[in-house]
Amino acid sequence: MSTVKKIGVLTGGGDAPGLNAVIRAVVKSAHNSGISVVGLEDSFDGLVHPGKSRRLTPEDVTGILRRGGTILGTVNRGDPFVEMVTTSQGTFNYADRAIEMFHETGIDALVCIGGDGTLAIANEFFKRGIPLVCVPKTIDNDIVITNSCFGFDTAVSFATDAIDRLHTTAESHRRIMVVEVMGRYAGWIAVHAGVAGGADVILMPEIPFDLKKVAECIRNRDAWGARSSIVVVAEGAQPKGGRVSLVEESSEGHVERLGGIGMSVAADLEQLTGKETRYVVLGHLQRGGAPTAFDRTLATRFGGKAVELILDGPFGVMVANRPPDLVSVPLGEVVGRIKTVPPDLDLVRTARALNVSFGD
Ligand code: F6P
After folding, report:
1. Dist. CA 15 → ligand 1 center (Å)
2. What's the predicted TM-score (pTM) here?
3. Which sequence positions are flagged as catalytic?
């Protein structure tokens, strides 16, 4: 019989469509198991700052299943184990204060919903004695062990729709259209949206590219009369022997920000092919809006499973999708690793068989 009577739920890192569906599932299933839920705002800030937490009842989460973003807010920066924080009661080491406040508030356990950064932070808090369960979230699909994460399907659907739209304008003007998608150091969004959108070229971090090969592919297409070409480029893609393109270097508490590769690929392809080329950066549009049915379902299952684990243990784990089941994996097996696209993935092989160029 579980002794847990009150849990805290928080969302950390970049938002992803489906976060609210997890919160809703956690609140409703916890309530039905006799557990009350405290919503912690802006990730662990909700523990540290009195006033940044609130009781969440089933009524509070009615209607949020289909809403993008997170009703709790989130932050995507900082290392709580080195940062200091000032509250009305003084200045403290952030993590020490979070742990102290966790015990003061009478919360028995946490559900932490987040990506690799949040999972790593949660693991450290777990090692320091906070009972918790994590739910993985990312549009990038780069968390290891879990087959999928909510947010990814929505991002791919959005990017596919954008590519569909670009086909028609590209054809009208006989242009090359370059579409930059997110994904950090993994090409999951690029390869899935590229294939679903019928792209002619897909450039991704796992397969460094040579633009001369891309230009050759486009010339071959011109030779048989193609009116246009669509190039999908992942923000983390890099040329052979080159490096990733950044809009901001990393700094204390901030990871580097990727971006800019779409613009440079478009400029270079225009030079190499002599064809008019335009580029589009899909950016945060991929993170916004309502989650797809797949993401709502997965997020709801993750939330329900997190509460099951809170009730039955173990703590210090992440929920993972291992079809047909949801399982739990120790956080230590997840943090510090990323899941990239295997260059011989069947989807990549099939795309190649359909004349898609990966620029290699
Ligand atoms: O990890 C999700 C993601 O959207 C990445 O694809 C992207 O590189 C990054 O977050 C952008 O982060 P920010 O919201 O801090 O600009």
Report:
1. 9
2. 0.97
3. 140
